[in-house]
Protein 1
Amino acid sequence: MRQLDRLSNALTISSVEKRAIIFDEKHSPDTAFILLAGVARITCRNRKGARTLVIMVAPGMVPGFPPPVPGISYNFRCEAVTICRVGTIELEALVEISLGIASVDFKRMASSYLGRWDLVQLRCANFMSCTLEERLALILLELSENFGIPDPKGIRLTLPARHRDLAELVGASRPRITEHLIMFERKHLISRNSRQLVVNRDRLESFLAQAHITAGDTEFEKARRSLPQRAVGG
């Protein structure tokens, strides 16, 4: 607890307004950002120059941006989706303080800082062989893991599941996402609770398994199994 108190005292805390930029590629890579409250997102420029959503960020260490690729500019930035409280600290100080934290806590923190870029890579690689239905199901499972709380009908998302955001994440148009969400509701793969989306993880995973029941152990199945499993029901 002493190290955690030191870490808390070492943070420079600020409030970031909704839709404001928390940090971008101009900021020093030697500074770590910790989302204390609120919801953020990481976006980048696609090959057409349009800004697109890459990752939704829950409270915790904000993932660092991937190393730059020579000749390619992604223009990554982290933006506030809601009003956010953000703590910043120099990486050198973070490591020096954190080395005194219990091993399991340090590993959790390091994993959080490295972020879930592995999931993004898996998503992009496997989406090429998935139907839109399957891509949407995978994204809903990912969001329910990062932004879900128990609900009698499954896992309720604590952030608005905007059709535009889902469309960006799966690479489809917003009208098509709306059509598929209606279809998912009819199949009881998802439902609504006070306008919030509820994901039935068991039904979604069964739906994905059935979609590939004759395809063997495909790369898609590997990606599905790579998603962490929640310890709650639903």
Protein 2
Amino acid sequence: MKNKIRIGCGAGFSGDRIEPAIILAEKGELDYLVLECLAERTIALANKRKMTDPTKGYDPLLERRIETLLPHLVKNNICLITNMGAANPIEGAKKAIEIAQKQGLKVKVAAIHGDDMNDKLKSESFEIFGNEDIALELIKKHQSPVTNNQSPIISANAYLGIEGILEALKADAQIIITGRVADPSLFLAPMVHEFGWKTDNYNLMGKGTVIGHLMECAGHITGGYFADPIKKPVENMENLGHPFADVFADGSAIISKVEGTGGIINLQTAKEQLLYEVINPNEYYTPDVIADFKSAKLEEIAQNQVRVTGGGGKEKPKTYKVSVGYKAFWQGEGEISYAGPAAYERAKLAGEIIKNRSSLTPNGGFFDELQIDFVGINSTFDNQAPPSGVGRAEVRLRVAAKAKTQADAALVGEEVEALYTNGPAGGGGVRKYVNEVIGIISVLVDRSKIRPIVAYFKS
């Protein structure tokens, strides 16, 4: 068994930059590289894409990330663990193999699935976690989107833990592509595998989860989400580096970044990330352990180096959290700018016109909610000073509304566009949007009803 491993985090969300992961793979001297690219809304939208095309549903940037990273992974013998499989890890793994074959590289890819509860949710017993009225109504109406694209539920995915990843690591997979796996579990699995930790040693599982949580948001802990130019300045943010952790067999770690990259790792950045998205630091629920963050200790030991010790945990929950995505409503938006004398007054009048006309549409009063905003900084006059005596130089009116249908939502933008000639004077730069909004709720399902499934592919 090893005494130390190095794990890097190359992505903290689906749209993260690709460059920091390449730097980690090329210069970080890693054993493992984790790309954490999944969230509740992300996987719901992935399921929506899969409904349209059964070969899709993995992360939109999976191909670009694999293409650029694969040569470095193979050359430096780095194992990649990522949840870029999203709603379709099998097809994501096949795409990775296709890329490897084009590059003439030999790799073994594991796809971990089994988290999809969409077809099972109606028949399974569950506990409510969140808005009870919405959850009960949705489950009552649930039909599989595979057979009915009008179903209000489009996704239901359980947060799996380390089990499937451990199986893939034992099988020597170099690329492990998962569906919905809890974020810290992506980091905890290689610790358990390399150090031989027992999965019922909840003290060590809790320590590893603390480290995983500190790492999972990538640029957060290196100063990205932390930065404030006045109170918390961070240098060279355009080249922000992502973190790596030297993890030791006793469950301690030192978090750092590649020398020469931008950003900063210090006590402040680590503390902010430790508490990020944490409601109760005494009991942080994951599929692997109920972790204790309160006993964790952070120590700044050198420039861009923070030592992590402490932490712990207790027995893992008897349920899995299942994130349910559903079609919530259609949102229509329209924007128009007013500049020059009385800009705000004209924008305000335009908003009143839209509000008064909302009941004059063909469907009379179709808005479930109507929001009117006034936005104004420098978009019209650029960085030049406004003309003398102009007052509020410019205002951009934004009107947004919830609607039950796409057609009704589109009327919002149409009404804003009509302001061009129907007044008030001087409006310009209209843009209009229609978007179907996906809602998220969660339920809890007996974990004995769900198990990970691992499939293997070779180039």
Protein 3
Amino acid sequence: MARLTRAEAQERNRAKVLEAARQEFAERGFRDAKIDEIADRAELTRGAVYSNFPGKRALYFAVLADLAERAPVILAEEPALTVREALGEVARAWVTRLPLMTEDRHAPSRLGADLMPEILADETLHKPFAELMRLNAILLGLSMERLRPPKEPDGRLVRLAGAALTVLQGAGQLAAAAPGFVDSFDVIRVCERLADLDLDDRWTVAPVIPDVRETDEPWSPPIIRDPMDGAAGGAASGASDGTADGGVDGDADGRADGGAARLGRDGVVAVLGVHRLSAAEEAVRAAPPGAEVTAVVVTRTPAEVLPLARLVVAEVGTCLRQAFPKPAWPRLRIVYDESGALAAAAGVAEPGDMTEVAIRVRSGRIVLRAEGFGACHAAASQRDRP
């Protein structure tokens, strides 16, 4: 039998820890789960568990993220053609995951019951979670706009998407805290009716001037695997450099497909800290037709925050893929850069939670770099010279 490389051994141990942790959390719940018991289940040492995850909460987030990314995508028999239909399908996909009153407290659907309490317990997670929810509203809003373009040139449907996500998040929390109270059919009907609301949502660009300069540098991003390339249709796979790719993405004509993540194509790459994720909308709206837009998510605490990011985005991403036809998927690829290798390739040596750096890529070269608030809009709005 061929001997495993160090990277292969690490990946195998990480998978064993995740599976053991999933079993422990399912049987005991997050509060009563013990790292020593997880190590025993995985047939590893306590130190081996901590070498992969800094603590129990980080491990909990990683388990939930892994399950969310591997959730099967059940495509609707008839793709949604209107915003009302799409919101109904998103809500239907969401409520099918909610715990039932008749289920045992150890049922898989109850595994995430401690997620919100853990977020509430740590103020450092509040801002990243808020930005992740804004990012989800942007993904949903952009998809709805492809089905129903706003009447006004500066109109958008992101606030409407946020209202729908507020309903769905509230339903999820009540289903866990008050079993039997939430009526799934009512939730679906409410989300469908939201489509008729006019929230007077307008897109404006903040009056900030980032540091922008033309350049000519090689663009050699690390190779990563696309999470949409697999039977589950949404499982994230980390490459040897520690990066992972996830969320909902579209290619040049707005459609998404599986396979390797093509980060070398012409377009905009935005390195965004978890406090600046909503800036990705500026890149998508300002980028010319055919330009690929990639948001690279970074943070100063990747071991805990990036699994949370993967989880939150995957929950909505799965619903989007089930509810919307492929041409309506947003033209945005989301990449989670745990090792910092992708950020380094973009020229960001020390990414932090407030990082906003955007580069313009053309023919395998970085031709423009923008840094600071407004960088995404500046890099995306720059038109290629003939």
